[in-house]
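During the reporting period the student researcher (J.K.) took over the structure-prediction task from the postdoctoral fellow and processed the backlog of single-chain submissions. One of the processed entries is reproduced below for the supervisory committee.
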Amino acid sequence: MSDDIFRLTPLDVRKQEFKKTMRGYDPLQVEDFRGRAADELERVVREKIALEERLRGVDEQLAIFKEREKAMNDALIAAQQLRAETREQAEREAQMIVREAEADAERRLERARRELERLEQSGQQLGQKHHAYLTALRSLVERQKAELDALAETEPAPFGKVAGTIAPAEQQAQAGGSGDRRKTSPKWIKSIVEE
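J.K. obtained the following structure tokens:
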């Protein structure tokens, strides 16, 4: 029989009354057996209650352990995701730093190239200006020397005093070598003309 259909409690056993017949069982033995059956039933019921309480405790502990296991699994998954995200973030930041460093190096290199080009152009311009200046100075010195030579050859009469000072210089130049008057030019003029 199912527990739902027939339930028997120790009290039911103790209070159960039987009809008396002429040839029935010994009432004392029946009462004794009924008492022992009720005692055993009480023990089984108490044991069942204790087992049910233990089972509830085990179920509660199992639920707690399952919650802890779920929390640990969730924490592990979150830690793995965080680690993956942190690694990805670190890789992205490292790539960004490398790109920025490369871009900065490229900018600096480009600035250095432009500065080098500017300096080379400036050097070329300076060389051209130096050459033009020397050419102009050479022409100027040659013109001035030619004018001085021409002036020395066509000395006018009223400037006798000046001619008197020029004559000793010419004599000194002639005494030092040939009679070419152009050699009386200062050495610094000759060095510029000869460059």
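The committee noted the following: The first helix runs from residue 10 to 15.
J.K. will present the remaining backlog at the next meeting.
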